[in-house]
Amino acid sequence: MKSLAELAAIREQMKDKIVLREGSGDVRVVVGMATCGIAAGARPVLGAFVEGVAKAGLSGKVTVSQTGCIGVCRLEPIVEVFEAGKEKVTYVKMTAEKANRVIEEHLKGGKVVSEYTIGNAE
Amino acid sequence: MPPDTVATVTDPFTTSRTTRKVGMGLPLFKLAAEQTGGNISVESRWEKDFPENHGTTVYALFYRDHIDFPPLGDMVSTVVTLIQGSPDRDFHYEHDFDGGQVVLDTTEIRNALGEGVPLSSPEIVSWIADYLKEQYAVYNNKNKQD
């Protein structure tokens, strides 16, 4: 039976991690979560990024946030990756599985997954 | 909102958006309510007239037994997405039905968590989802019996 008291326990567990989380936010991952995005399946994509970034220990460097309609609804779910000093990368027709690959190869490894980008998707 | 905005707020071409000229939220909400024989009303106290107590309330009436009444959908994910997307905003969600209630209040969650833990943290988001799912189990069981 879930209770608010559990939150105090969760917070204790998170205490060590909180310090690390105050990261520089060098990299921003933005998931389109407007009606078009959600209808196309953006919620599991957002979930995959949020969990994946935390599991990979990237929470200090990468922030994951939501945005509205980007304007290319037929290519939703869309994920944009912003990194200071680099060009924006726009991933289209994303899924939770593809998200995991982006986390591994792009966010961790620094190499854009070009097959998933908008340039590749005409 | 100023009174002249309230008067046209359900027009799709009245919007505070800057990226484009159309805002569909309220117009579609109004349509959905009216399709079931209901309606919406938007009441707003403008900051200029009510500096201490400004705000807007939207009321909607839907007739559930109308053939065009849409299904409720996945409210757990909807509430989770709202909180996850605006972790600094406070939400009070309440769903009353025969035989029970689902309630979630972010101010209570913030009090229990104390400072420094964003509501968008995966652990908290996951807790919120489970908390809601558990409460909705009563609603879902009841609906299966009907």
CATH topology of chain A, anyone?
Answer: Glutaredoxin
Give a short account of the largest sheet of chain B: 2 strands, antiparallel
Tally of DSSP helical segments of chain A? 4
**Can you give the mean pLDDT of chain B?**
90
Uncertain stretches of chain B:
none
Secondary structure elements and their pairing?
The complex is a heterodimer of chains A (122) and B (146).
Chain A: H1 5-21, E1 27-32, H2 35-40, H3 42-55, E2 62-67, E3 79-83, E4 89-91, H4 96-108
Parallel strand pairs in A: 1-2
Antiparallel strand pairs in A: 1-3, 3-4
Helix pairs in contact in A: 3-4
Chain B: H1 3-8, H2 25-35, E1 39-45, E2 55-61, H3 75-85, E3 92-97, E4 100-105, H4 106-113, H5 122-145
Antiparallel strand pairs in B: 1-2, 3-4
Helix pairs in contact in B: 3-5
Structure description:
The complex is a heterodimer of chains A (122) and B (146). Chain A has 122 residues and is α+β, with helices and mostly antiparallel strands. Chain A has a single domain (23-121), classed as Glutaredoxin, CATH 3.40.30. Chain A is built from 4 helices and 4 strands. Chain A has helices at 5-21, 35-40, 42-55, 96-108, and strands at residues 27-32, 62-67, 79-83, 89-91. In chain A, strands 2-1-3-4 form a 4-stranded mixed sheet. In chain A, α3 (42-55) packs parallel to α4. Chain B is of the alpha+beta class and 146 residues long. Chain B is 41% helix and 18% strand. In chain B, strands 1-2 form a two-stranded antiparallel ribbon. In chain B, α3 packs antiparallel against α5 (122-145). Classes of the chains: A alpha+beta (122), B alpha+beta (146). Chain A binds chain B through residues 1-2, 4-8, 10-11, 13-14, 18, 21, 33, 38, 43, 46, 50-51, 54, 65-66, and chain B through 77, 81, 84-85, 108-109, 112-114, 116-117, 120-125, 127, 130-131, 134.
